[in-house]
Design goal:
- The chain is of the alpha+beta class and about 220 residues long.
- It has 2 domains: about 20-85, Hypothetical Cytosolic Protein, Chain: A (2-Layer Sandwich), CATH 3.30.1230.10; about 95-210, Ribosomal protein L30/S12 (60s Ribosomal Protein L30, Chain: A, 2-Layer Sandwich).
- Helix content is about 45%, strand content about 15%.
- It contains 9 helices and 7 strands; from the N terminus they run E-E-E-H-H-H-H-E-H-H-E-H-E-H-E-H.
- It has helices spanning about 55-65, 65-70, 75-85, 95-115, 120-125, 125-130, 150-160, 170-180, 195-215; strands at about 25-30, 35, 45-50, 120, 140-145, 165, 185-190.
- The strands form 2 sheets. The protein has a 4-stranded mixed sheet, sandwiched between helices. It has a 3-stranded antiparallel sheet with strand order 2-1-3.
- Strand 1 (about 25-30) and strand 2 (about 35) form a beta hairpin.
- The chain is globular, with a radius of gyration of 18 Å.
- The structure holds zinc ion.
Length: about 220
């Protein structure tokens, strides 16, 4: 439901200080409960504001203020994205971002062809991910940017026993196309080795820069 276009005082959900709208970061939740950073401040949906300051991001993480305002559980990795966004003083150039996205997709696609990727909630919840098995060791669990609340819940639950978790800057549609599958909301791949490290580096470059790139 769209909000009526009226002026309201915008305050930071963490420190409660009012500020000019353009200065605050807007966080928005979709009807499905997915949480996004809305750089342009134009996306529909329930929104919350935060000062672009590390203190306020961490304060919101600790107090759960964003979750309360947005009436959904904001995943911890979203706060990591916000912190990265706030810290990104010198943002990567558009061509760097395009290169990073291409590389991320090709790394994921190669991993899939090498048979290293478990796909979907069932794949991620399989025994090989649940337990540290000798073959794969701990896994990196990756959710699409617009994965559903229940899938994010599964990913959080699996983030144990040495497994780790991150949010991909790719939507379900983008992730599915990359892997040549349909409706992929979550994947898991071995945490060990350079593969997952490279994926994490690319994810952080993209999370920092993509939103800022869209703004210009
Ligand atoms: Zn604040």
């Amino acid at each position: 439901m769209a909000e009526p276009p009226r002026r309201r005082p915008r305050t930071c959900a963490a420190c409660r200080e009012p500020a000019v709208g353009a200065v605050l970061l807007r966080v928005v939740r979709s009807p499905e409960g997915a949480v996004f950073l809305d750089e342009r401040g134009k996306l529909p949906g329930r929104g919350a504001y935060l000062c672009p300051k590390k203190e306020c991001v961490e304060k919101a993480r600790k107090s759960g203020a964003l979750s309360r305002v947005l009436k959904t559980k904001v995943p911890d990795c979203f706060y990591d994205q916000l912190a990265a966004r706030v810290e990104a003083g010198g943002l990567p150039s558009p061509s760097t971002l395009l290169g990073a996205e291409r590389e991320l997709r090709s790394v994921l696609s190669l991993a899939r062809r090498a048979g290293l990727v478990r796909i979907g909630s069932d794949g991620v919840q399989s025994k090989g991910v649940r337990r540290k098995n000798a073959k794969n060791g701990p896994m990196l669990i990756l959710t699409a940017s617009d994965s559903s609340e229940s899938v994010r819940g599964i990913a959080e639950k699996m983030d144990a026993g040495g497994n780790e978790r991150a949010c991909l800057p790719l939507s379900v549609v983008e992730l599915s196309a990359t892997l040549g599958a349909e409706g992929v909301q979550v994947i898991a791949l071995p945490l060990r080795g350079g593969l997952s490290e490279r994926i994490r580096t690319l994810v952080s470059i993209l999370s920092e820069g993509r939103a800022a790139f869209e703004q210009t």
